[in-house]
């Protein structure tokens, strides 16, 4: 039987931490020349991170979402793929100037987050 | 969680009667939204049927604006988890307009990877798919959705499998990228070692002083790096090192261990996700399963010699006058087939 999305929570959070470390590393290396081995390593690591996230997302989508904990993970995945790392669930300051699609998605994800807090999901 | 009931009275314009309905605010918002969408669709169809009719175009624009107003109202409040359903319907309408029309519904299903529309799946961007999956989950798990409304959860479809297989393939490709970079680094490392051998074995430092600036710089860098390694945390080397003052270990690239670990972790992640979903048993097509494991095996096979090479327990490469001949013979290990991308 397929896992439920929330069963992947620990793996997802580990990936988020890894992604944050990669982003910090990228900032630290921005002054190095592109052919520096450290830059190549960092870029390879970032590509790998994207692939791992997409693989986890696909595994979550195959699972059976049954409650808010499941929906919350799907919301975080959607947020990550649409808005990037480290911003969940903070809406961008210029959210009302974005396209209607973006605004709708942002408020849906934010709504799921709010509902999960009210519903007692930690 | 609070469910505040309110009494909603809606006038029926056709017969003048009124109905009284007990609804939660979320149910009211949902009804308002659906009504606004129905108006928009009707206005759109009327406008399409009479192109150039200014009144119908105005009616359509008014209906669109009404939809936006209802949406903005929905975004300002969220009273209970079930109310997220309104936002999900808004997103579905925004991204896949007129979802109750056949084409749009097919598109939404295609994005979700329904078996019947698997051919369209490739059209869906990954971020779009993520939103579609979220919308589906909210609509199906919300308490407002009755059992009758809830669509049947699709079985693991060919499209799902293709998706997992494709992204497992991405992981495998990523691992290959790391392997390629690793190979390049080891290649550089071997060239440097080779140069160091020749510089150190065939020419004295004094003789090299007359070399061009670039050569001298490279030589100095190699020597300085070797000295740092020798003076630092390098483990004790074979007895030969103590006997030969010229024996200075040539260090591995410092990024190599990280990249080997990354590649191994990526392969492990692909394997764990595959097995944790029992995809060997659930796959309707044995060829997909075999291809997946073939990818994983290939990546592991290519990684193995590199992982072994950087294993701290393995003998560290050591450059001396006496080892010069043998070191130059080992450079061909970075073959073109292993360095492919």
**Secondary structure tally: strands of chain A:** 0
Q: What is the rounded Rg of chain A?
A: 16 Å
Oligomer: heterodimer
Could you say which overall geometry of chain A the principal axes of the C-alpha atoms support?
globular
In whole angstroms, the N-to-C terminal distance of chain B is 54 Å
Order of SSEs of chain A, N→C?
HHHH
- Low-pLDDT sequence parts of chain A: none
Helix count from the secondary structure assignment of chain A: 4
The biggest sheet of chain A, with number of strands, parallel, antiparallel or mixed sense and barrel status, is: none
Largest sheet of chain B: 2 strands, antiparallel
Share in helix of chain A: 55-70%
Report strand % of chain A.
Answer: under 5%
Which chain pair has the greatest contact? Answer: A-B, 53 and 60 residues
Instruction: Look at the helices and sheets of chain B and give the structural class.
Output: mainly alpha
Q: What is the count of β-strands of chain B?
A: 4
């Amino acid at each position: 039987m397929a896992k439920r999305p929330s069963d992947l929570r620990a793996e997802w959070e580990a990936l988020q931490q890894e992604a944050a470390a990669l982003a910090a590393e990228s900032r630290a290396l921005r002054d190095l020349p592109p052919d520096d081995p450290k830059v190549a390593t960092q870029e390879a690591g970032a590509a790998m991170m994207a692939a791992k996230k997409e693989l986890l997302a696909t595994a979550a989508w195959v699972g059976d979402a049954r409650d808010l904990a499941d929906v919350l993970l799907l919301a975080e995945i959607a947020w990550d793929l649409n808005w990037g790392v480290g911003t969940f669930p903070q809406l961008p300051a210029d959210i009302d100037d974005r396209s209607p699609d973006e605004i709708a998605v942002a408020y849906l994800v934010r709504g799921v987050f709010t509902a999960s807090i009210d519903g007692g999901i930690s | 969680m609070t469910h505040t009931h309110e009494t909603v009275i809606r006038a029926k314009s056709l017969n003048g009667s009124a109905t009284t309905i007990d609804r939660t605010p979320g149910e009211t918002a949902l009804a308002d939204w659906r009504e606004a969408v129905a108006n928009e669709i009707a206005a759109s169809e009327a406008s399409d049927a009479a192109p150039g009719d200014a009144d119908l175009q105005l009616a359509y624009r008014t209906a669109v604006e009404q939809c936006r107003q209802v949406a903005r109202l929905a975004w300002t409040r969220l009273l209970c988890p079930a109310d997220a359903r309104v936002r999900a319907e808004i997103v579905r309408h925004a991204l896949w307009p007129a979802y109750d029309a056949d084409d749009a519904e097919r598109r939404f299903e295609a994005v979700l990877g329904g078996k019947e529309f698997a051919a369209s799946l490739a059209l869906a961007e990954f971020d779009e798919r993520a939103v579609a999956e979220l919308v589906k989950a909210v609509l199906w798990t919300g308490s407002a959705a009755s059992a009758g409304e809830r669509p049947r959860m699709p079985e693991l479809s060919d499209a799902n499998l293709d998706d997992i297989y494709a992204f497992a393939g991405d992981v495998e490709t990523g691992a290959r990228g790391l392997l390629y970079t690793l190979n390049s680094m080891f290649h550089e490392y071997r060239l440097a070692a080779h140069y160091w051998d020749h510089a150190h074995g065939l020419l004295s430092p004094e003789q090299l002083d007359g070399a061009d600036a670039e050569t001298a710089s490279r030589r100095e860098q190699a020597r300085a790096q070797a000295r740092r390694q020798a003076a630092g945390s390098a483990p004790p080397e074979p007895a030969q090192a103590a006997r030969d003052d010229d024996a200075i270990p040539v260090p591995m690239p410092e990024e190599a261990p990280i990249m080997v670990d990354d590649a191994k972790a990526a392969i492990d992640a692909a394997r764990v996700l595959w097995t944790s979903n029992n995809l060997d048993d659930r796959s309707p097509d044995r060829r997909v399963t075999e291809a997946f494991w073939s990818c994983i095996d290939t990546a592991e096979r290519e990684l193995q010699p590199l992982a072994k090479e950087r294993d701290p327990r393995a003998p560290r490469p050591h450059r001396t006058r006496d080892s010069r001949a043998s070191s130059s013979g080992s450079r061909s290990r970075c073959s073109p087939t292993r360095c492919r991308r």
